[in-house]
Design the sequence.
């Protein structure tokens, strides 16, 4: 006589799923990113992770862009802000904070590219802004110029991290660099007189040296470059 099938537990006997929260959704997104990469951080994948339907997630997160911004904010908690409170030249301390910021992005593939367009607004992003603005104030940068300048500093650091992380992952990076080197070294003096003969200068410097130079250029010029008068209300999408 065949054995009777094992009855499935009723819904009342199953352990209750934890209630959905925005914090829980973001935590699940961070787990997926660490294990599978940012490209897998989608509403559908998170619904699987949390054993729910994708539609239920939209109650807490508007779309994937907002989700990626929230994930980015979580990782910004890893940025070392100790230089803000340390002694020493304010420019070097700005560079140290932005260097840590770039390192955080570089450690997590895909995060740097997402950070180019993501707009975090969480507590870790505000802490980063607060620290950088404090250093700019210490350096005597007027408030209005610091407010615009901090945006540019983060943009440069983000773009640099995105470029380097993309190259590190690309199997064709070596070939692309060789092609660029060849094009610059063989530039025609007649067609490209300003390029010809300057390949060494155009290709010189390590990524870190170039990032440091860009930041120094921005920091040195920021106090001397006035912000234009507003022509109307801010129009940022």
Sequence:
């Amino acid at each position: 006589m065949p054995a009777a099938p094992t009855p499935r537990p009723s819904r009342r006997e199953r352990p209750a799923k934890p209630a959905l929260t925005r914090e829980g959704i973001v935590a699940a997104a961070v787990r997926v990113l660490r294990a599978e990469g940012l490209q897998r951080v989608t509403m559908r994948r998170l619904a699987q992770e949390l054993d729910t339907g994708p539609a239920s997630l939209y109650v807490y997160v508007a779309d994937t862009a907002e989700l990626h911004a929230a994930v980015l904010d979580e990782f910004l908690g890893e940025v070392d802000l100790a230089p803000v409170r340390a002694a020493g030249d304010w420019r070097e301390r700005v560079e140290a904070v932005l260097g840590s910021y770039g390192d955080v992005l570089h450690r997590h593939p895909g995060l740097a590219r997402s950070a180019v367009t993501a707009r975090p607004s969480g507590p870790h992003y505000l802490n980063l802004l607060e620290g950088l603005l404090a250093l700019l104030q210490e350096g005597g940068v007027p408030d209005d110029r610091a407010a615009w300048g901090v945006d540019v500093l983060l943009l440069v650091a983000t773009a640099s991290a995105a470029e380097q992380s993309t190259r590190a992952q690309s199997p064709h990076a070596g070939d692309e660099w060789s092609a660029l080197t060849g094009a610059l070294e063989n530039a025609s003096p007649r067609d490209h007189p300003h390029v010809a003969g300057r390949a060494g200068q155009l290709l010189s410097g390590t990524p870190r040296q170039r990032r440091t130079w860009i930041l120094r250029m921005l920091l040195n010029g920021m106090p001397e470059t006035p912000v234009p008068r507003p022509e109307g209300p801010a129009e940022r999408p």
